Amino acid sequence: MNFYHSVTLDIKKCKGCTNCIKGCPTEAIRVRNGKAFIMQEKCIDCGECIRICPNQAKFAVTDDIEKLKSYKFTVALPAPSFYAQFKEGTSKEAINAALRVLGFNEVYEVPLAAEEVTAAIREYIKKNRDIRPLISSSCPAVVRLIRVRFPGLIRNIVPVKAPVEIAAKRAKEILSRLYGLDNRDIGAFFISPCPAKVTSVKQPLGTSESYVDGVLSMGRVYAEVLKNIGKGKHQSIFGSAGGLGVRWGRAGGENEALEFGNRLSVDGIHDCIEVLEEVELGRLSDIDYLELQACSGGCVGGVLAPENRFIAGVRLKKLAEKLGSETGIDEASVKEDFKEGYYFFEEEIKPVPAMKLDEDMAKAIKKMELLERIQKELPGLDCGSCGSPNCRALAEDIVQGRANETDCVFKLREKVRQLVEEVMELSQKLPPTMEG
Amino acid sequence: MKLKKIKEILRAEVLTGDDGALEVEVTNACGADLISDILADTKKNAVLLTGLTHRQIIQTASMSEFAAIVFVRGKCPAGDVIEMARENGLPLLRTEFPLYESCGRLYEAGLKGDFEDSKGLKERQSEEEKIAGTMRLVYEVCGGDFNMAGKATEQAKKVLKQLGVNPSAMRRASIVAYEAEMNIVIHAYKGKLIFDITPSLIEITAEDEGPGIEDIELAMQEGFSTAPERIREMGFGAGMGLPNMKKFSDEFEITSVVGKGTKVKMKIFL
Questions:
Q1: Best exposed site among A410, B4, B15, B89 by fewest CB in 10 Å?
Q2: DSSP letter at A344?
Q3: Residue B76: CATH number of its domain
C-alpha cells in the first residue's frame, strides 16, 4: 500500500540530530546515514516533528495558490481557526471580502458546516448507545493515530464526515443548482491549519474521494489576506456561521457546541495517546463523547496557523461570544439528511498494522522473543544516538533487519574494548623463533 | 551426514565445539544472510550457513534449533560471540568458501534438502510450529499500589499489538487483564499477571496471595463487591470486575482458597 504524506523532510536542512525521533508519537522516524527518514506506514501527519525540528528540516507540503487558475469557479473554505488569526475586531465579513480580492469567487465558511456536523454528531450519539465513549472524527491526525496504534478503537470513531468535507459538498451542490456549474469546474480550497488535513484530502479515510480540490497553508493565505483587509466587498450566496461553529477552532469547542451528553475534551497528541490507552482498558465507558485534538490548543495550535495558539485561542473565544449561539442551520433538515445518510463515511476505516512484527503470528512471536533478549542486553538509557527513538525500538529495528547491535554507541564501545584486550593479549605472544 | 564430514568438505576451521559435538548427525541445511529468513526456517537437524557474525545470530540459531553454524566467506565472529555459542552448546565452524559454493559443495556431497518431497510434511510441521510457538509474559503486581496499577496491562498491550493480535481480541484482552490486575491491587497482598500467547489464543492468568474469596458464586454477581469504602471512593470496586472478566473472555475459570489466595484463568481465542 502506498501512503501519501504531507509531512516531508528537507534532506538538505536535516543535520541528523535526534530531536524528531524522540518526539514522534508513533515512533515513525529514524536517523540513518546522518539524515532523518520517515517510515511511511507509521506516520500520521500530526506535525509534531515540524514543531520539534530545530533546523526547520520538516515541512508540510500544501497546494500552491496558483492552482486556483485551473478552475472556472473557485470557493475558499476557511477553517474556523482562520478567523482567529487577525487582530481583535476583524470581522468574518472583512476576512471573506479579502479572500475575494485574492481571487476566490466565493467563500463557504467551514464553521457553518461545523454547525451542521454538530447536529449530525448529536443525532449519532443519541441513536448509538452501545459503544462508549464515541470518539470525534474531526481531527484527521487522531483518526490516523487510532488506525495505527489503537486499531481496536476504530469502532468508537463517529463515522460522520469532517466539517470541511460537508462545506465543500454543500458549496458544490448550491453552485450547480444556482449557476448550473459542473462539479469539475468548481475548485474548493481548504485554508488549513495542519498537514493532516492535506493528507486527508489527498488520501481520504472513510470515503473514496474528497469533495475538496486543494489545501492551502493557512500561513501563506494569511499573509495575502492581511494585505487586503478592508479592501473589497463580498455578499455571499452561502450562509454565515454563528458562534457555535466558530468555537470548533479551539480545543473543547466541538464539545461546547454539542451541548449534549457526558463529554470529555483532550488536546495535544501525547495526552490523546494517554487517554486512548485508558479507553482501550475499558475505563471511560461513562463518557458519551470524546473530542480529541492532536494539536495542543486545538486547531489554532496547528503547525500551519501563523498566530500564537494562546492569543488565537482567546480571540476565537471572543469572536464566538460576539456571534452568539444563533445558527443558520435548520436542525429538522439536518435530521432528514442524517436519515438519508448524507453525513456518513462511505467506507470503513481499516487498521494499519504498522506495529506488527510479522504478518504470521508464529513468526512474530519468535521475533518478539529475540527482541526481548536483545533489549535486555542494551543499556536502557534511551539516548537515541543509534538513530532509533529508544532501546526497545532499536531492538525492534535489529530484529527487523533495519539496524545492528553495534549501532548502539555503548555496545560499540564494549566491542572496541574487547578488541583492544585481544590485541593486548596477542602483543604479548612471541613466535617460538624469537627470544623471550 | 556428520558435522565432522561437513568440516572436511568445507575445509572448515572449528571455532567452538569438541570432538563429540562433531559427531552430530546433520540432515539438512539453511543458507541465509537475513535474520527473518533464518527465523522462518523450520528444518530439523540442520546446519546454518551464514555471513552474519553478530550476537543475534547465536540467539537466532539457538532459538530455531540449528545443530551448528558455519560462517562463510572467511568471516569470523568476535570472541564474546564465540563464547556465547560455547555456553549455548552450539558448534561454530568457519570456511573460506562463499555462501553459494559452500551450499553447492554440501549438496553435491549428498546433503540435499527435502523441499520437494516434504511440502505436505512441511505444512504439517509449520502447523506444529504454530502450536509450539508460545510466548510468556510475566508481570509482578503489588497489592495496594495504585500508582503502578494498570502498568502491567499497559506493557502487555504493547507486546500484543506488535504480535499482531486482531483488534477485537486485543480490546477484550486489555479489558480482562486490566480488571484482573486491579483486583490484585485492590484485594491482594501481591500477585502475578501472566500472559501465554500462541497464534491461536491468549491465556491470561492472574494469581495472587491474598484473603481469597469465600463465596465465589456471590462474587460473580454483578454489583457485588467487598471493596472497602476508600476504594469505592476512587471509583473502583463497583462489583463489575469478575463479571466483566467472564463476559469478555471465551473461557473463564476461577479458584480460590480462603486465607491463601485466588487464581483466575481466562482464555481469548484468536
A1: B89
A2: B
A3: 3.40.1390.20
- Amino acid identity, residue B87? E
Please state, in angstroms and rounded to a whole number, the distance separating the CA atoms of residues B231 and B148: 15
Distance (Å, rounded) from C-alpha B169 to C-alpha B160? 10
* Alpha carbon distance A401, A171 (integer Å): 50
Whether chain B has a CB inside 8 Å of the CB on A403: the answer is no
Q: Is B154 in CB contact (< 8 Å) with chain A?
A: yes
Task: Look up cell 521475533; give the residue.
Answer: A367
The three grid cell numbers given for residue A126, joined into one nine-digit string: 443519541
Q: What pLDDT was estimated at residue B185?
A: 92
Tell me the nearest-neighbour CA distance from A198 into chain B, angstroms.
28
In this predicted structure, the answer to whether residue B130 has a pLDDT above a threshold of 90 is: no
Coil, strand or helix: which one is B140? strand
- From the list A152, A396, A406, the residue facing B170 with the nearest CB is A152
What's phi and psi for A217, nearest 5 deg?
Answer: -70, 130
Number of separate domains in chain B? 2
Residue B241 belongs to a domain with what CATH number?
3.30.565.10
Instruction: Tally C-beta pairs within 8 A across A and B.
Output: 112
* ipTM value > 0.85: no
Question: Looking at the predicted structure, is the pLDDT value of residue A322 above 90?
Answer: yes
DSSP state of A432: T
Q: Find the residue in B nearest to A281 (Cα).
A: B175
Strand order in the sheet with A186-192: A106-107, A73-78, A186-192, A214-217
Cβ neighbours around A130 below 10 Å, total? 4
pLDDT, tens only, B58-99: 888 887 788 999 999 998 998 888 998 998 889 999 999 999
Q: Identify the residue among A273, A365, A378 best suited for mutation to test binding to B, counting B beta carbons within 10 A and taking the highest.
A: A365
Residue-wise pLDDT tens digits, A301-321: 999 999 999 999 999 999 999
Q: Which CATH number fits domain A65-131+151-250+299-340: 3.40.228.10, 2.60.40.10, 3.40.50.1780, 3.20.20.10?
A: 3.40.50.1780
Give the CATH superfamily of A361-428: Electron transport complex subunit B, putative Fe-S cluster (1.10.15.40)
d(CA A69, CA B164): 47
Three-state SS at A328? coil
Alpha helices in A189-232 (DSSP H): 195-202, 218-228
Element containing residue B50 per DSSP (H, E): strand B46-50
Farthest-apart Cα atoms in chain A, separation: 106
> What was the pLDDT predicted at A431?
79
Would you tell me how many other CB atoms lie within 10 Å of the CB of residue A321?
A: 12
Q: Is A5 at the interface with chain B, CB within 8 A?
A: no
CATH of domain A7-60: 3.30.70.20
Phi, psi of A181, deg, nearest 5: -75, 145
Q: Are residues B95 and B81 in the same domain?
A: yes
Using DSSP bridges, classify how beta strands A58-60 and A35-38 pair: parallel, antiparallel or unpaired: unpaired
Quote the pLDDT of residue B129: 52
* Residue B147 buriedness (CB in 10 A; 0-12 / 13-18 / 19+): exposed
The H-assigned helical ranges of chain B are: 3-9, 35-40, 55-63, 79-88, 99-108, 119-132, 151-163, 167-187, 216-219, 229-233, 241-248
Report yes or no: B198 at the A interface, CB cutoff 8 Å.
yes
Strands A289-293 and B68-71: unpaired
Among all residues of chain B, which has the CA nearest to that of A406?
Answer: B54
Test B167 with A152 for CB contact under 8 angstroms.
yes
Angle at A406 (CA atoms; ends A402, A411), nearest 5 degrees: 135
Cell of A375: 533489549
Neighboring chain A residues of B240 at a CB cutoff of 8 Å: none
Assess whether B229 and B114 both reside in one domain. no
Do A104 and A75 meet the contact criterion of CB atoms below 8 Å apart? yes
Beta carbons of B15 and B79 less than 8 angstroms apart: no
